[in-house]
Predict the 3D structure of the following.
Amino acid sequence: MKRSIAFLLVAIAATGCAPSLAEVRNQTPTRTARAANADYQTLAGCVAERLQTGESSYWTAKIGNLNYQTVTRTDEKRAMLTGSLPSRQHIPVIDLTFRQDGADVIVESRSGGIGLSRGERFESSLWPAVEKCAPGVVISPPLR
């Protein structure tokens, strides 16, 4: 019983430290990319579909286990794709921004999450989806 209570207290304390979506979006991007001759809405939709059908696991959080939401701002020619932990708190783990820049699309990733579900753990699964949706995309090395 004492173990259960201690575990519950640690879990509650950990979720209190999770960054909000606004805090995640205010961070410096962890990585960026430029997709030539692309459309931000099409690219965001394709990446969202690939991530939603990505690898999942019953025991550990993987890219396919996250809940995804896409928000499009046509007035700003920008789409945001956020992957959150499947919980009531909607803790953002990864956040991708797709911004139209002339004929190209700039893609930026940012990381959130907590504990073993930190966004950095999912970075290696994000970029192959972007590459499949935009062949020839130029991806920067990790920025932090």
About this structure: The first strand starts at residue 31 and ends at 35. The mean pLDDT is 82.
